[in-house]
Specification:
The chain has 201 residues and is of the alpha+beta class. It has helices spanning 2-95, 113-123, 130-133, 161-173, and strands at residues 99-103, 134-139, 154-158, 191-194.
């Protein structure tokens, strides 16, 4: 009788243990399945992020390439601009090759610039024929903070460059030339120079 009870208890205990084990194992399998599902979701998100990062990296590399290309083009354009500026200044100076700039002669209303050129030529002992030797005579504006105090320079353009060089040489020899020598009441110093561009001054 006691043996039978013992066998029955053992059977019940084994059954209970087996049921508990199956229940725990079932729960463990469910947790594993849930974990696998989560891992699958995270892997999916990771791949999305990875693709997004790769796309952004590709875009950044493309932008860097474009930026490098633009920098190179900018440098080339700067060089070209500097070259054009130099060439333009050279041409501008070439256009002025027959010009003389006179500084220091006062301005008068209704002034006769041709008459002033004749007086300048006489003062330095140079023979000039305005109708044959001169292209034009004019006053030019200058950029200066004291522009309202100083008379505008006179630019004399001669028909011949060599005539210009001779006239300029004669004017420069008369180093003591003043406005009073030309009939003005003031004694402003009068200077004669090549008509230079702003860059060459």
């Amino acid at each position: 009788m006691q043996v039978k009870i013992t066998e029955t208890l053992e059977t019940m205990i084994k059954k209970t243990i087996k049921e508990l084990f199956n229940e725990v194992l079932k729960d463990f399998h469910q947790q594993i399945a849930s974990l696998q599902e989560s891992m699958t979701w995270f892997n999916g998100k990771f791949e999305e992020i990875k693709l997004s990062v790769n796309a952004h990296n590709t875009k950044i590399e493309s932008l860097q390439t474009d930026n490098n290309s633009l920098n190179s083009e900018c440098l080339e354009l700067k060089k070209e601009l500097c070259s054009l500026i130099k060439e333009n200044d050279r041409k501008d100076q070439w256009v002025r090759r027959s010009n003389i700039e006179i500084v220091g002669i006062p301005e008068k209303k209704d002034e006769n610039l041709l008459d002033l050129v004749n007086k300048l030529a006489k003062c330095c002992g140079y023979n000039i024929n305005p109708s044959l030797d001169l292209d034009f005579v004019t006053r030019v504006a200058v950029k200066t903070t004291n522009e309202h105090k100083k008379p505008k320079p006179i630019v004399i353009k001669l028909q011949d460059r060599y005539k210009k060089d001779e006239f300029l040489y004669a004017l420069r020899k008369n180093k003591d030339l003043t406005a009073s020598d030309l009939g003005f009441t003031c004694d402003n110093k009068v200077y004669a120079n090549d008509h230079l561009t702003s860059k060459n001054k």
